[in-house]
Amino acid sequence: MKINYEKTLFPSAFFQKKQYVGYIHEHSLVYLDTPMLFLRGVKMIKRNASKFYKKIAEEMIWTSLGFDERKQIMTQVTDTKQIVYDTILKYISQEHELDLFVLNAKYDPTNKPVSIRDFFNSKHVEKSQGNKMVMDFIAKRDEEGKEDLEPGRFYYYIITHPDSNVNIDRKMRLVSEFKDTDKIDKLYYFKNLKDICASFFAFATIKKRKLEIQINSKKLKQSKITESDEQENNSKKRKSEIQSTSKILKQPKITDYWA
């Protein structure tokens, strides 16, 4: 198997195709007090991920490798699905710093370049290059008469208003305009964990299949051994019966003594 990281990864976990993590060993000495995490293909590294997402995802990965919150080795191994449930329940019941929920997006009002085909067919419609969510957010600000934002810049915002019926652009609130009375839409942030959770569930499924294969393989091996033992016992039994029968046939008659 060809992998991107060609040094020692232990402990390690292969979630699914092209997704694996592990503890890096780059030196002859292993420093367990400062473990380093290697990630490849895992959705923890993605564009515009909040610190909240990264913190939970990293904790779940460390736990799956056998480390606790303080990066100390644990003696008890936990099922990957249980790791997801326990971690999410833990963070649901906690209060968190506002900084964890900050996201960023670029305000780009410039129009997309028109394709040659659309230009000559006169079917082109001017569309903004920017994120639709951001453009809707800007339109909402214009409706409310708020200060214009400078184009071409990245802005930091938080998703508020915990109501699933409200459009996402109505939930966006600039960090500089966030009030103490505003409520963070934590459900939105937890829903964004679906990618990393899917990797953990896939890993649990793979482990279950491997365990089933091992169990079935042991059962098959045991059945073959049992069958072989039974055949051997039957063979010995038949041999013993044949020998007994031969002895009976070879017993001399009383007249043979007077012959």
UniProtKB/TrEMBL annotation:
Keyword Transcription regulation among record annotations: no
Gene3D superfamilies, alphabetized: DNA polymerase family B, C-terminal domain (1.10.132.60)
Name of this chain's protein: DNA-directed DNA polymerase
Enzyme class: transferase
Gene Ontology MF terms in the entry: DNA-directed DNA polymerase activity
Domain of life: Eukaryota
Bilayer-crossing regions: none
Residue ranges of the region described as Disordered: 222-259
Record bears the keyword Transport: no
InterPro entries: DNA/RNA_pol_sf, DNA_pol_B_thumb
EC assignment: 2.7.7.7
Keywords, sorted A to Z: DNA-directed DNA polymerase, Nucleotidyltransferase, Transferase
Originating species: Gigaspora rosea
Matching SUPFAM superfamilies: DNA/RNA polymerases
